[in-house]
Amino acid sequence: MLPKSVEEVQAVLAVANQHGIPLWTVSTGRNLGYGGAAPRVNGAIVLDMQRMNRILEVDEEHGYALVEPGVRFLDLYGYLREHRLKLWMSAPSLGWGSVVGNALERGIGYTPYGDHAAQICGLEVVLATGDVVRTGMGALPGANTWQIYKGGYGPSLDGLFLQSNFGIVTKLGLWLMPQPGGLTSCVAHFQRESDLEAAIDVLASLRRREIIQSNAQMGNVVREVAHRYSRSRWYDGPDAMPDEVIEKIRQDLGIGWWWTLRFGLYGDEELLDARFRIVQRAFSSIPGAEITGHKHLASGSDGLYACEVEGPAGRLAGVPGLFALNALRFRGDDCGHLDFSPIVASSGREAVRVYEFVKAQAREHGIDYLAGFTASERHLTHVFPILYEKRDAEQTSNAAALLDTLITELGKQGIGEYRAHLAFMDLIGDQYSFNKHALRRLNETLKDALDPNGILSPGKQGIWPAASRRQRAGTR
Ligand code: ADP
């Protein structure tokens, strides 16, 4: 179902309510590694919002955009360039999806505005009943502050519609970053596997103090290699690549390090230089650490960037790209891919705890460990794309079993996912169980009140409508 307007969304809802037909809302339905556009229940109709794709407003002075769900990162980027606006957006590793879908799923990018959910300011939502709500200042007729002040009057409701099945978002306000005077794209290398702890400790402090202002990404050597080469060049075994093979790859490619850290520094040139010196000094406490920075300054009479920041550094400037897709050729021509992304407190000790556990489990399940940690101010998102050869039934089931084990076992230790693949939404929902599942009970109360016929994305994030809950209880 491809509605073109709010009125068409309302018309679809009327029919779905009348006949009890479940709808599964997506913006463009990419959501790679988390289940794509697939619904959770048979017989659901995908409500695909890609034809509602207008960029309704971009305000250069105040730094925001108001967009519809079908607007892709590529579209917004093209618009900013075409109109020569001094604003930067932030894009996730894969820049092909929608701005709205990604922000609602709490996706991340790599500029200082890389916490996409945190940039949301004002939503328009069609509720299951067909009622259209504008949150925050959007409820005040004539206000020009809908995309400027998040609060509005009364409870803050934007969060209710993130990773949720309480409504259909038809407009979303997003803050955009005033173009900085410059960007230094930095790469740091750490030689030994055991440098992880010290490197994360230094990084965590630099992030908390906002010397490094954006999500920084640390990856192991397997991850780096996987984005550039196919593993068959070195190894064809059905198990995970043994350490000797990884060592051989390092020798062949002349790689002297184990960990690579990528991040950007932002601001006027004086700030870039000062930040780089502080970062250099901080990492010099780790023997053998090397750091390089490449400065890009706004140039030209209008102060705009003369050309895009190219290559993997592009995403530090919010340029949408598809570089991350390369990894899907690492273990076969067209790998399947499941994402494991738990939230870890930002400290070296915690990173090592998770790293060692995941490494052992990955090896046991015959899966290569592409380890990554994205460092925010206070937490790390552990990012592990579980790659498997789709045509190999055993590898496919090993991949799913690995993800199940990681979620289950780390969950017992209080380490939980920030986002979930469709097939694991209930498992993870079960883990957030404080006070006899008080959170789930509250979500169910909201679900029943807002969507009495239970037609919107049943099962999303483990939240089921009343009728399915009864049915599920009966089958247990
Ligand atoms: P992508 O941007 O990768 O194409 P999707 O469109 O697949 O992302 O959206 C990811 C998830 O976000 C969907 O599965 C859905 O749960 C939620 N979502 C996306 N768009 C909307 C929307 N307009 N309203 C409510 N939820 C949405």
Task: Record the SSE blueprint.
Blueprint: H1 6-19, E1 23-26, E2 45-48, E3 55-59, E4 64-67, H2 73-82, E5 87-88, H3 99-104, E6 120-126, E7 132-134, E8 168-175, E9 177-178, E10 182-190, H4 196-208, E11 216-220, H5 221-226, H6 243-253, E12 259-267, H7 269-283, E13 290-297, E14 335-340, E15 343-345, H8 348-364, E16 372-375, E17 379-389, H9 393-412, H10 425-431, H11 434-450, H12 466-475
Parallel strand pairs: 1-2
Antiparallel strand pairs: 3-4, 4-8, 5-9, 6-7, 6-8, 10-12, 10-13, 11-12, 11-16, 14-17, 15-17, 16-17
The chain binds adenosine-5'-diphosphate.
Adenosine-5'-diphosphate (ADP) binds at residues 25-31, 37, 49, 69, 97-98, 100-102, 104-105, 168-169, 457, 460.
